[in-house]
Amino acid sequence: MRLSTLLGTGAAVAVTAVIGAAATTPEIERDWYQQLRKPPYQPPRQVFPVVWPALYADVAVVSASTIERLDAQGEHKKRATYQAALLINLALNAGWSWLFFNRRRFGPATLVSAALAASSADLTRRAVAVGGGRALPLALYPMWCTFATVLCGHIAVLNRRR
């Protein structure tokens, strides 16, 4: 894998992480999130700073590998389509953080989270079609996003009047 491709996908993912953190960190530090009613399956606070960097690294590496393979196969249109799908996915990812934490719009955030889960599943499908089993670790991303959608929706229901 070329370093330039990995740096490109890594930069896109890093920008997403920074945008998400800009929306999330101030609200976590103000204890706003801790005051919300949450379901009993809410993971401990310490889980999120471990899970998200691992998922982001996975997205960057699998995406770089997928883009390289498509390029090597001369599948330039599929490569461009994958890159567009990746950018849409990352925009949904960052957008969720702003809707949920910054704007406190739980209903719309749940819808964006569902779109993110679907987009992540599509990204995984595309990567596995190109890279086979090597891309399977990316399946953790839509699984986590689906869990996050359920959690977000449940938080929305529990905090309707806030």
Low-confidence stretches: none
The radius of gyration is 16 Å
Strand count: 0
Oligomer: single chain
Put simply, the count of helices is 6
Task: Provide the descriptors you would attach to this structure in a database record.
162 residues; mainly alpha; 6 helices; TspO_MBR; transmembrane helix; TspO/MBR-related_sf; transmembrane
Could you explain the architecture of this structure?
The termini are far apart. This protein has six helices and no strands. The chain is mainly alpha-helical and 162 residues long. It has one domain. It is a multi-pass membrane protein. InterPro entries: TspO/MBR-related_sf, TspO_MBR. The chain crosses the membrane at residues 46-68, 80-101, 138-158. Belongs to the TspO/BZRP family. This is TspO/MBR family protein.
